[in-house]
Design brief:
By secondary structure, the chain is an alpha+beta fold. It contains four helices and three strands; from the N terminus they run H-H-E-E-H-H-E.
């Protein structure tokens, strides 16, 4: 049962801890087998510092639009990864303004 031990370690490891250790977060959709790698500092710009086991529930797959098949893996890059590993970088954060209506009598 190594998977349970791995999830217990993720519950104590936060985004700041992963960023300070120089790790990457590889998030995989196990339904459509899509993987994206993120830098924890990019995620900290629009998320609070949370544990990694809670972070995976905030992601939704862009390909199949499912949330329940997401899996997070902590990856420490080595020398063979440089120049080959594709990382998603944060360019900007777009906020969407949605009007809120209320019915009132005249």
């Amino acid at each position: 049962m190594p998977e349970m031990n791995y999830m217990r370690k993720l519950s104590r490891w936060t985004l700041t801890d992963a960023a300070d250790a120089g790790q990457l977060l590889a998030i995989t959709c196990q339904y459509c087998n899509t993987t994206h790698c993120y830098k924890p500092r990019d995620l900290l710009q629009f998320r609070d510092n949370m544990s990694l086991d809670r972070l995976v529930s905030k992601f939704r797959c862009e390909r199949c639009n499912r949330r329940d098949y997401m899996h997070l893996r902590v990856h420490h890059p080595n020398g063979a990864d440089f120049g080959k590993l594709v990382i998603r970088r944060l360019v900007n954060v777009k906020t969407v303004e949605v009007p809120v209506w209320e019915d009132a009598t005249l």
